[in-house]
Amino acid sequence: MNGDLKMNMVLNRNKIKVLVAKPGLDGHDRGARVLCRFLRDSGYEVIYTGLHKTAEEVANAALQEDVDVLGMSFLSGAHESYVPRILDILKKNGVDLNDMVILVGGTIPEEQFKKMIDLGVDGVFIPGAPMDEISDFIDLKIKEKRDKSSDQHYFVGTKLIKAEDLV
Amino acid sequence: MMVQDIIDGIKNKDIKSLARAISWIEKEREEGIELIRNIYPYQKEETHIIGITGFAGVGKSTLSSRIIEKYRSMGKTVGVVAIDPSSPFTGGALLGDRLRLGSLSLGSSMWTDPGVFYRSVSNRGRMGGLSRMTGDIITIMSVFGFDKIIIETVGAGQSEVDVIKVADTSVVVLMPGMGDRVQFAKAGILEIADIFVVNKSDLVGAERVRQFLEEMLNFTDYRKGERRDGTSEEWKIPIVMTIGEYNNLKGIDELVQKIDEHFDYLVSTGRLKEVRKKRAKSEIETLVSDIVVSLCYKNHSVDLDEFAKKVSNKKIDQYTAAEKIIEKTMTENDIVNLNTSHYL
């Protein structure tokens, strides 16, 4: 992330709550647990759901814990059905997606990045995305949403792009 | 969102309002203080506050989940505050209690049960096993109207005993393999229990733990001139042997029964009032000391590093330094029109 963007981000990360979720039937969660550890070391408060959660369970946890960031990890291709369902339940319960940063990570095919963003996801991270970029993006996105900034960024695959460059 | 909207939401049992109110407390927002000032009279007397404490890894979270499931089967609603430690270096935390909560993949889901509200919080570096916000979160949950509020402390060391100050019923969880008789004679966490649990009681040595606890309790009663035969008015601290693992469950019904019996005991003897007063006292004490500390360092011109340098260079002693800091704070601050929210 370039220096100018980073300069603007002076946030108290202890007061940022992140839910790392494993919806669906993925059999392993090393990636999600490594991310939890990384975010903890970066100063965030991280809640981990554990494996095998339903869409309703993930959405309810995000609601009760009133998290600032919801990150969902998929290795099984289930993101296509889970992401819209989880976001739908959140909206039905009165969550404004402009209030929550939504991230998806895992094995997401490139041709579905745009679809995820259109659903309301802010960042899609695939294997190879550096972890520092994840925390930088969280800080940037929280600030953009809080300030209702006209300049919105998204993260697709392994890179940060501006809203107008999204195709 | 406005404070009044949240208050109305909480009174109307709106989950999102409850969640946001707790966030205000956690994020130390001014609205949180205003909220508490407005809702404190509506706390429900009949809310039962249960504290669960014990060393790290004894099964507190798993046991809590089994207790929640039992209460749900009895039709009781449950609010949970699960506290985990924050890093002394980065302030970050991994809040890993929620993942023990019974989910659909294990049978029935406590995650989606509308009678369960589960909140994970970090202790923000506070010693004693609780976070400063715990008292405020209990207040909000009590106004919301849960029948039971469960406070799960961080994995305790020997002296994380603060839970006794906020809970009506303190449950201390142990497991086999935790030391010899001397460990059980030490002061601290073993003194605060209203109920003892020996969890993982299928493991070798469970019976020994029960025996050590019995000996310790007998001695306590002997000192008080009482016998442990149930003939006196005093609460007899029970020892419950449990297994929290799903396919091997043991003792949960008995534990929940004992927890409820203890509450009945507090109510029928009038001791609940003392317990609640103790909770209030501890909250005031915490606030006063937090505000005074913050008055000294946060907003005004006291340069702690400067004092530290003088003390370490043996120019002044540490008592003089403390006196000077407090003197300076008292003379330079407007103590009369104190606005608390500036200091928390």
List keywords for this structure.
heterodimer; A: 167 residues; alpha/beta; Rossmann fold; seven-stranded mixed β-sheet; 6 helices; 7 strands; 20% strand; globular; B: 344 residues; 3 domains; seven-stranded parallel β-sheet; 44% helix
If you had to describe this structure to a student in words, what would you say it looks like?
The complex is a heterodimer of chains A (167) and B (344). Chain A has one domain (3-165): Rossmann fold (3-Layer(aba) Sandwich). Helices cover 39% and strands 20% of the residues of chain A. Chain A contains 6 helices and 7 strands; from the N terminus they run αβαβαβαβαβαββ. In chain A, helix 5 (113-119) links the parallel strand 4 (101-106) and strand 5. The model of chain A has no long low-confidence stretch (mean pLDDT 92). Chain B is an alpha/beta fold and 344 residues long. Chain B folds into 3 domains: 1-41, no CATH class; 43-269, Rossmann fold (3-Layer(aba) Sandwich); 298-342, no CATH class. In chain B, 44% of the residues lie in helices and 12% in strands. Chain B has 12 helices and 8 strands. Chain B has helices at residues 3-11, 15-26, 30-39, 60-73, 134-144, 163-166, 181-185, 206-223, 252-269, 271-297, 304-312, 318-332, and strands spanning 48-54, 78-84, 93-95, 116-122, 148-152, 169-174, 195-198, 239-241. Chain B has a 7-stranded parallel beta sheet with strand order 4-2-5-1-6-7-8, with helices on both faces. In chain B, helix 1 (3-11) packs across helix 2 and helix 1 (3-11) crosses helix 3. Chain B starts with a helix and ends in a 12-residue tail after the last helix. Chains A and B meet through helix 2, strand 2 and helix 3 of A and helix 2, strand 3 and strand 4 of B. Strand 2 (45-48) of chain A pairs parallel with strand 3 (93-95) of chain B, so a sheet runs across the interface.
Brief characterization of the structure:
The complex is a heterodimer of chains A (167) and B (344). With 167 residues, chain A is α/β, with parallel strands linked by helices.
